[in-house]
Predict the 3D structure of the following.
Amino acid sequence: MLILAFDTATDSATCALVSDGEALAESVTEPVALLVDVDAALRRGGVREGQLDGIAVGTGPGSFTGLRMGLAAARALSFALDVPVAGISTLDALAAGTPGALPLIDARRREVFTLVDGEPAVLPPGDLAVERGTVCVGDGAIRYRELLEEAGAEVPADADEAHLPRARFHAALASEFGPAELVEPLYLRVPDADKPVRTLPA
């Protein structure tokens, strides 16, 4: 199965073209440059019209803007190439890169996106129940390294690729493909633009 996968939930957008579990092309860029990397991956893999079987896209949680960009790209490519789409949790893909690790994505506002009992959640890093020896990965682990290591967790070096939600893992986790419009982003909290504006009394 030939799958194009990408994730734009974090500051480091990842892209991969995967054929039956083998990565034919991989890249790491910024979310705004995603389509350039997608085009390069398809060219590098020599993909012709009708050969692509599906698209796996990261659904977050993560940056609101990044998620919207990724989902919009997936929907446009699905329509243009006539292929189905599968949505994959960015946290699940991040965890798949280092089995047994706790994925942590920087949620800003002094919070992290993570998995609690296998379910996505957002909370202050100080509220994490981290057991000694737990390996923590992701840009949230990098940002709160000192706090996590004081709690007994292990955080790989900042440059370690374990901190990236590599798109090849999105492809590996993808099993159910369907219409692109049914794939929804996982926000976990309301975007700032959607919050009601408080007005001061006259």
